[in-house]
Structure formats: structure tokens, C-alpha cells
Amino acid sequence: MKRNLAVLVAFGAFMFAATLTRAQEGPPANQATKLADLLAEAERNNPQIQAARSAWQSATKIPSRVSTLPNPVVSVQQFSVGSPRPFAGYTNSDFAYFGLGFSQDLPYPGKLRLRGKAAETEAASLNEAWLMARRNVAGQIKAAYFELAYDQQDLAILERDGSLLEQMEKIAEARYRTGQVSEQDVLKAQLEQTNLIRQTALEQQKAGRLEGELKALLNRPPSSPDIFANKLAETPMALSFDELVSQIHSGDPRVRAESDEIKKQETEVQLAHKDFYPDFNVQYMWQRTDPTQYRAYYMLTFSASIPIYRRRRQGGELAEAKEKQAQAQHTYDARVQQAYSDLRSDYLEATTAERLLGIYKQGLIPQSAATFQAGLAAYQTGREDFQTLLSSFLDELQLDAEYWRSLADHEIALARIEELTGVALN
Hints:
This protein is an alpha+beta fold.
């Protein structure tokens, strides 16, 4: 009996020490990969980022092309007289000739500049799309990384608490052999051990799925080495909500892309106004007959396209451009409001998680540890049953997991805020 009591006391001391150190443990440092290294790797290798960059790079080549005059046209003419044979009548008729010509289309002044300006704003919008892809991929990597860190921490908790539960089972068996408790205490401990095994299998499955997501984002082969996350650490919220809101217009690439779309549609409206004016064409022709008998001909032609269907064609184009401009403005307003809503939701989640972390660290976890210690002392003297002791143990296990869950949610919310505002918080 004295030996069993000594075992209980030693176990209580071990349990109390484990509770104090539980929040400090994490995956092995030599196996963990830094989040910054994964983000840098994604910048280099992620296909979505590379595709968005190529789209932007190709769009930067368009302004110079659309703002340049159309290609000139060079023509060669041969006019025969009296016979379809080439150069028939060339020496005996001043109507037969050989000619060289040149023509050039000339859009109405200002049209080429406006087309180039519209293409530049389109390229700027695609540049924002590239930045958006980078932010989006970075946000996905951060979310998966923090989730993986939580799962790895939860697996460590389950493994550690499984060992503690095994010791509780041995204590219950010792008391059962001495006739102090029924066999039900041993069976309950064994049942809970099996439940921990089930939870461990589910967490391992989730961790494997998260590793697969990270490898896909990094463009790594599925058979590449496993990824281990660093231990979760709380990042304090250094900015107020109003300070973050002020960064939306300049920091959210989706908002900036919609702003570029408004500028593009404004240019399209100006271009539609220009289409009410004619475009021009200039031609020059040199014609040569027999130089020993006839003089050469020189012909200059200037032509213009007359927009006589202004109401049906140009008027329709202008109305369409104005509607698209209004659409772009409404889309921009909606995007800004959505960004405000997303930011408020993420900010509330981050600040709520921050308060919960304080409650867990300063209240719930120490209180649950003290409750378990009191229950352990009561169980060893027969003043408390095993079910109550097991319940306090499971409460502590749950609160520990909830603490790390809140910490992961806090970091993921900060990552989404970073994606929205471009402000580095972590």
C-alpha cells in the first residue's frame, strides 16, 4: 500500500510538471522548416505566381504596339494597252505604265495615344493580379503552415497524454488488485486510451493532407521529404482597426486592380468620343511609261473615312463604354466594401483569439491542472471515483488543445489581414 501511494505521489508531480511545460514544447527544431523559406520557395516555383507574372509581362508589350501607326502598304502596278501580255503598249502608248506606290493609314489625332493608355492600365491591372496571386499563395501557405503546426502540436499532446493515461491505467490496476476499486476503472482507462489512438490517427491524416497542400503550392513532387512546422508563437496585434482600414486602398491588390479598371474604362470613353471623327489615309504613286517618249506620272491621294452612321455605330460604342465605366465604378465600390467587411471579420477573429489565449494561459489551463491535482489526491485516498478523475484529465486535455487551436486561428487571421492590407504583422 505504501508503495502504491509513492507511485501516486510521483505520478502527480510528473503530471504537474508536464502541465507547466506543455505549452512550451513543439516539433524538433532540427526538422522544422521556417515559414519564410517556404514563402521564398513559392515565389520561385509556384505555377500560379509564374503564370500571373507571364500574363503581366506579355501585357507590358501591348502599349507600344497599339500606339504605333499601322504598317504602311507598298504596291506595284503594271498596266498594259492592246494586249493582256505584260508591258504591252509600254513603248507606243502613254497609257501603259509600270508603277510603284505607297500608302499609310492615319488614325484621327489622339486615338493611338488613348489606345496605348488603355493598354497601359490593362497591364497595370495584370501587375496587380500578379501581386494578388503572390499574396493569395502566401496566404494559403501561411494558413496550411499554421494548421500543420497546430496538428503537430496536437499530436505531441496526444502522445504525451497517452503516456499519462497509461500510467493512470496502471494505478487503477494496482488499486483494483488490492480491492480498492472495481474493474470498471481499468476498463474506462483502456477505453480512453483507445479513443486517443483514434484521435491520433485522425490528426495524422489531417497533417498528411496539409503537407500535400503545401507541397502542391511549392510545386514539390509528392514523394519529397515531409514538412515540419516550427512551434506556434503568438504574434501581438500592433495596429488598430482604423490603422488597418487606412491601408485598404493602397495595400489590397484587388482594390487597386479595380481602380485600374476604372481608369481603363475612362480611357475607353475618351476613345469612343474620338471615333466620331474620321480616320485618314495618304497614298503616293509613281508611274513610268517609255522614258524615251513619255514623261513619268506622280499621283498623291488623300482620303478620309466618314462616320455617317454616328447614331447607330459610334453612338452605340460610346453608350457601351459609358456603361462599362459605370460598371467598373460599382465593382470598385463593392470590392472596397467587401475588403472592409473581410478586414473587420479577420480583425475580430484575431483580437478575440488574443483575449482567449490570455484566458487559457492565466485562468483555464492552470485551473484545470489544479482541479486534476486535487482529484488525483482525492482518488488516492478514496474520496473521489475514477470517472471524476478521468473527467478532469480530459478537461485538461481539451483545454490544452483549445489553447493551441486559438493560437493557430490567431495567426491565420493575421495572415489574412496581411493579405488584405499588405502590412507585415508576423
